[in-house]
Amino acid sequence: MTDSPASAPVLVLIDKATAGGPPLAEGETGWHVVDAHDPVIDVADLGVTRGDGVFEGLGVADGAIQALEPHLRRLARSAAMLDLPELDLDVVREACLASARLHAPAPFLLQKLVVTRGVEGGDGTPTAWVRTDAMPDHSHERRDGIAVVALDRGYRHDVAQTSPWLLQGAKTLSYAVNKSVLREAARRGADDVIFVSSDGYALEGPSASLIARFGDRFVTPSTDQGILEGTTQAAVFETLEALGHETAYELLPMESVRAADALWLASSGRQISPISSLDGVPVAFDRDFSQDLADAMEARRD
Ligand SMILES: Cc1ncc(COP(=O)(O)O)c(C=O)c1O
């Protein structure tokens, strides 16, 4: 397969993703670039056969990786939750920077950074790579809003404390459920999903954080409920605080979410998308405020 140079994805394999072991020799980087279409994954890799591994999706705006350090911290946290070997974040960081740098310039790119448990029956060395590619266009979401449905995740909000082995709150490669709920949303005529705990608390989307507005107060579900700490949500909160708004991390019963003044899903890929309906009921959405917020976030990055 051939790509035009402007759109060709850049794939960097990370040879030395884990800490410990012999130090890098003079001139060694711990990563190398390969053709993005080369067959580089062993079919016995546990990331492929079991979804046993962790990942991050990073936005790249005008060549600069957004929230790189929070993404690296979250990757390390996820890896620790899966008992993967400790990662060498210096090597991983340099691999991400190189992958972004080597891509043809574009306003927005998306990086997938993946660390698997390695090949079944192998020596336990994780397989790791970072791939930079075009960012899917989400501009229509900001303009038109998104229809979401609330779906039961089947776990209580305190699952991370009661059953840590379920890995809720780790960003694992096992995203089949996160994809399945999107198909259920489509069957219900919606675009996306808010996961709800079995005891009635709003959690997050399958690939995004939830933000609710109550007057001048902006609330996101507290991250001790088996959900991810969103890097985009954190950037949104920093921007809102700079604009003089109050922000909070709280338990958010679904009834409160249904009574909110406005709702958004936030993620590295889409940035911030206003919700226009929840379970078929229209949600007020202020297109200008959403756009102003997105602009203010961009201005803070410059
Ligand atoms: C389950 C889940 N929650 C939240 C997020 C949002 O995280 P971020 O803003 O760091 O992309 C993601 C991102 O993919 C996700 O998969």
How would you sum up this structure, described in words?
The protein is α+β, with helices and mostly antiparallel strands and 302 residues long. It folds into two domains: 10-134, Aminotransferase class 4, branched-chain amino acid transferase, N-terminal domain (D-amino Acid Aminotransferase, Chain A, domain 1, 2-Layer Sandwich), CATH 3.30.470.10; 139-301, Alpha-Beta Barrel (D-amino Acid Aminotransferase, Chain A, domain 2). Helix content is 28%, strand content 26%. The chain contains nine helices and 14 strands. It has helices spanning 46-49, 68-81, 89-102, 139-144, 159-162, 176-187, 231-242, 254-258, 287-301; strands at residues 10-14, 31-34, 53-61, 64-65, 108-116, 128-134, 146-152, 192-196, 209-214, 217-221, 246-250, 262-267, 271-278, 281-282. Strands 7, 8, 9, 10, 11, 12, 13 and 14 form an eight-stranded mixed beta sheet that branches. Strands 2-1-6-5-3-4 form a six-stranded antiparallel beta sheet. A hairpin with a 3-residue loop joins strand 12 and strand 13 (271-278). Helix 7 crosses helix 9 (287-301). The longest helix has 15 residues, at 287-301. The model has no long low-confidence stretch (mean pLDDT 95).
